[in-house]
Amino acid sequence: MGKTTGFLDYARQDAPVRPPLERVKDWEEFHLPLPEAQRIEQGARCMNCGVPFCQAGFVYEGKTFGCPLHNLIPEWNDMIFAGNRAHALSRLLKTNNFPEFTGRVCPAPCEAACVCGMYGDAVSIRENELCIIEEAIETLPLRRPPLWSGKNVAIVGSGPAGLAAADQLNHRGHSVTVLERDARPGGLLTYGIPNMKLPKTIVQRRIDRMTNEGVSFVTNMDAADPAAAQRLLENYDAVILCCGAGRPRPLGLEIPASSGVYYGTEYLKASIERHIFNESPALPTAEGRDVIIVGTGDTASDCLATALREGARSVVQLVRRPEADYLENGSLPLDYAHEEALAVLGTDPRRFSVRPQGLEAGGDGALSAVVTSDGDTLPCQLLIAATGFIGCESSVCQAFGVEAGGVVKTPEGRFATNVEKVFTAGDMRRGQSLVVWAIAEGRAAAAETDAYLTGYTNLVSSL
Length: 463
Known about the structure:
The protein is α/β, with parallel strands linked by helices.
């Protein structure tokens, strides 16, 4: 490393953010870039540890430690300090197809595994990664295949797993078509993550780049139609299913059709359609309503931040588990959404060890209140269930004839399904997970598919 004492000389400094009361007034990205001199110092903090666990990417007791993509983190941190951004970029892109996504929305398991963080603050790995790609991407040359293989691949689903598989196979010279049932490609990157965390211009920028490099995108195409699935099997040399694990966990209440109860992903998608794409979805806005969010985690926080921006009259978040489960060093950490809630509402909206027990409706049948397990009744016209997911939807699996339970079944460590030339990747195979795991899955599935098509592969699998 160029600065072996950097972790002693410089304190961690995170990128600045816009003040909560300012950023809740719009849908723009709220993180701001760190000045160049300070970013160099943050690269210098990487400490040349003997074993860089940050790039190990393993699961222990259900938690991910280190980068699942095995990013060459110490190498590009050193290049940030050395001022050699071109080499930093080359090392970053060697393992990560979309650092502009992971640099914004990944919870950074690499930092949880950082040796520097054992006795102090971890290196700001995620922000360093984002700095490298954002400085270079506008002038980055396109990578068009010099030669086409004559093989064609259909990828069903355009989320991070599908995009990663498409990017890899396109660079190998296969003709790749990505099919998406929604009006725009990107999957959860487009419809499941609010614009202030991941601007849709950033997603479209990557889609445009992939299109210019040779990937074809077809939208409004539902492969759950058996006839459509059959055409794909007949017309393509391989098919990769990357449809996610979007089947939500039921709330456990009797819910009338007109009750005003929606799942978190439904609500986020409608909000993005309304506020970013200027469409008119059927789901209501939170404006002027008393909102209750059930659940915790990223989706719940994103729903909270979205409801605040939409002008909710009040927001309460019901969390099933006790507060003690979430304490860090005796205090309750605040993510971006809870910082905003404190600024707007004057209080933390979370109530722990509480769950909804029943619903009340007005004379018109619309939701009017929620009865909690504590016995109190909270006014509510919009109840959002952000309670997680139980697996992939069965319709696509049935259309292609692949075996599935909660997820599609594949041999251990493999991506081939029980149907000849049909592969799968991402949350559809793994279950609900992180964007970075989805990218790793897409890369690994691409390598296996490439070997199936050509008899060998030189694509590197992250798994």
